[in-house]
Amino acid sequence: MSLTPDQECALIAAAEEGVRHAYTEHQSPDDFRIGAAVLAEKGHIFSSGQYRSDSGSLTLHAEQCALAYASAHGEYGIVALAVTWNEKAASKSEGESIYPCHMCKQLL
After folding, report:
1. What's the whole-number mean pLDDT along residues 28-56?
2. Of these four, 87, 90, 95, 101, which has the most CB atoms within 10 Å of its CB?
3. What is the largest CA-CA distance in the chain?
4. Which GO-annotated molecular functions does the record name (predicted)?
5. What is the value of pTM for the model shown?
6. Distances, alpha carbon 88 to alpha carbons 3, 79, 107, in Å
């Protein structure tokens, strides 16, 4: 299944919404924020931001949250994934794109 231009735009917009809803250390819009969205086989889009834990090891990445959200709604086949971030996260990537980490790739 390939993405239509409308699906691609909707997927990116949902990932951007995930950035806004990310749970961060200070809950400031300027905190490091990542958002992700998945397009499921049935055509539904599920998005989320990361969920930061004070312990660090219990932090959930945005990709993990979006996949869990889809699964919680009975959607297990994933067609596409979009990941986006805010300015603070972009500054840490040194101009490079941000890709899912190896842990998230394994989950995918």
Report:
1. 94
2. 90
3. 40
4. cytidine deaminase activity; identical protein binding; zinc ion binding
5. 0.89
6. 29, 29, 26
